[in-house]
Amino acid sequence: GLSQEDRVSETGPDGRDLGVNVWGAPFGGHLKYYLAAYQLHDPGLNPLLSGRLQVSLLSPEPAFYQRTTYFGTKDLISFGVGGQYQKAGSIQTVAPAAAGMMAAVPLTDDFSFFAADLNIEKILGEAGTASIYGSYMKQKGEYQRWDDFWFVSAGYLLPGVYGIGKIRGNVRYQRAMDTFPGAEATSVLDFQLSYNVMAWFARFQLGYRRSEVFVRPAGTASALLQAGNQIYLGITIADP
Q1: Which of 153, 156, 154, 163 is nearest to 198 (CA)?
Q2: pLDDT tens for each residue of 174-225
Q3: 81, 83, 67, 79: which is closest to 30 by C-alpha?
Q4: Model-level pTM?
Q5: Strand partners, 77
Q6: Closest to 225 measured CA to CA, from 191, 189, 178
Q7: Distance CA 87, CA 71 (A)
């Protein structure tokens, strides 16, 4: 995938696909583009065509991946648009074939996906760093689970170093609409506090999540909005 839009786009089961990608960052990284074709390994599928264009107004972003925070190292105003298309890429889910029976042939429809996002981060001098990020995504295809999806997040990085790391708080709200007729919106609200030893590569997170997930009717069970609460502790250690 190309960015966080992949959370509802037509990627593989692990959020990654096999394919080819051409990208560039002209004007020192103030402009960035991606063009790609994925799922080329499966002869039964048409290529998943993907593209994105991003503009960074204040500080350049020349690296391949985009970041929603630079942990107080640069001011940022960036926005981007992207999309995907796959002919016959929206595929009907069919029940497994019974023993001795032929499997049903699923129906298909063309798949398309659009995404737009805005990221603002401002260093407030000795007062720390504030961040705001928002994204909207829309997909089409008769057999897609989700119609649209959007989320917003706000973060604040405390000034200075505490021990060997920096402390950052973040709140994020996500909302998605199921394509099932009369569905209620699925939403997730996160509060997170992180201790960042080495930016994205070594950090600890403590968070609380409140979710309300729309569950489609099945058999004699009616549709419902299933609520959940979760407290989590995470550790990220990666090779920089």
Answers
A1: 163
A2: 999 999 999 999 999 999 999 999 988 999 999 999 999 999 999 899 999 9
A3: 79
A4: 0.86
A5: 120
A6: 178
A7: 40
